[in-house]
Amino acid sequence: MPPKSMALHKGLGLKAHTAKYFHRVRIQFGQQVSMLRRLSSKKAIYSFTRKNRPAYHVMDGETVVVETGDCFSGLARSESDLFEDIAMGDVNPATGPIAVEGMRAGEILCVEVKRIKCGKAGVVMCSPDLGILASDVRKSRTRIVRIKGNKAVFSKDLEIDLNPHIGVVGVSPLKGEFPTFHPGDYGGNLDTVEVRERSKLYLPTFVDGAMVAIGDVHAAMGDGEVCGTGVEVPAEVTVRLSEDSEMSLTRPMIETPTEWFSYAAAKTLDQAAKLATHDLVRFISDRRGCDFEEAYMLASVAADLRISQVVDPLMAAKMSISKRYL
Ligand code: CA
Ligand code: CA
């Protein structure tokens, strides 16, 4: 009889080359204890392209623990390591790609975020080469921020609340090659605080298996991410990956327990705002079975148009509406 882990591996129908990454992990969700596979951050990509080959395979509907490196690939070890010392090629390792067995190009992927466990310390940086006020920055600075319970120790006299979320979640795009610090219709560098525990991120897919990759967890970030970083941490994220047959979308959407969010990235914030508004109005119209004008007026009085981030190669906006109104 094979060892138990091998038997489980066979039972899940996993490809042989993923077997060595198979570790049994006990994760407790309330009263329920599950045995989950752990996907190592040693297999990571730095660009999204349809040429990427799968590093891991999961079953449709499988929940896995994804280990993620911090956005500087662990190269910012002290406060003397500055942004200029880090090559852009080392920014935003995204663990994967993970092929979801049975998914076909054109289907919708649902990434359900069950748990985000942040590392013990994070990095915040500012630099004259980074952020919306880059030209005002006289000197680069790096801050190592200790994580203490549900707080980040920002300075001697200031602790800030954590709002852990995943910065990068993307799938292989239809065409082109995009560094993992780019956002787009395929996801990527979303930098959207609502990609957090108990949320579901829906992504359009363009290749068989979706080929999702995950990284760039922030222990904390404000809307806009104005200086260019959140509290950048290594992390372990527990996600369920599945095909969703109900959603229809061309750009990412996020569902929280109480709200729906559209999301759009574009060259300017104006363009991103217009696309995010368009997507949410269309979504409202579909859900309520009403015409465009009715949905547009409802969005105007009850939905919130906000900024995701203003520091990536494309700007990103989001628009949310309470589930109560749908
Ligand atoms: Ca990011
Ligand atoms: Ca980041």
What distinguishing features does this structure have?
326 residues; mainly beta; Endonuclease I-creI; 2 domains; 8-stranded mixed β-sheet; 24 strands; binds calcium ion
Could you give the topology of this structure?
Layout (H helix, E strand, L loop, with lengths): L3 H8 L13 E5 L2 E8 L4 E2 L1 E3 L6 E3 L3 E7 L25 E7 L7 E11 L2 E6 L14 E8 L2 E5 L2 E4 L3 E6 L6 E3 L3 E2 L2 E3 L10 E5 L7 E7 L13 E2 L1 E10 L8 E3 L3 E8 L2 H20 L3 H11 L1 E6 L5 E8 L4
Helix pairs in contact: 2-3
The structure holds calcium ion (2 copies).
The site of one calcium ion has 7 residues, from strand 18.
- In what order do the strands lie side by side in the largest sheet? 1-2-6-20-8-17-21-22-24-23
| Helical segment count | 3
Distance between the termini: 53 Å
Structurally, the number of domains stands at: 2
CATH architecture of the largest domain: Sandwich
Indicate the CATH topology of the largest domain. Jelly Rolls
In CATH, the homologous superfamily of the largest domain goes by the name Acetamidase/Formamidase-like domains
Give the C-alpha Rg: 20 Å
Sheet with the most strands?
10 strands, mixed
Uncertain spans? 1-27
Helix/strand order? HEEEEEEEEEEEEEEEEEEEEEEHHEE
Structural class: mainly beta
**How many beta-strand runs?**
24
- Average of the residue pLDDT scores: 92
The hetero compounds bound to this protein are:
calcium ion
- The quaternary structure here is single chain
